[in-house]
Amino acid sequence: MINEWVLIVAFISPGGNFIDKVPVTMPSKTACERAIKTLPKKGEHPMGVQYRGVCVTQAHWTGTEPMKNVPLD
Q1: pTM to 2 decimal places
Q2: Tens digits of residue pLDDT in 28-46
């Protein structure tokens, strides 16, 4: 079984409020962690939107096998 990972990118308003999230399937944990490093940094978005990423397993994302210390959405 291939252990796919999901990069969850959250969009946060300049005031700190949650806007939305986008899940992106990744082939490995390493690829997911590399992708987080490519997210725009605070202050790079013209409207002040912040990006936050977290890597979780596909099983965690679907709720079938939650990861320890990682909240379910």
Answers
A1: 0.85
A2: 999 999 999 999 988 888 8
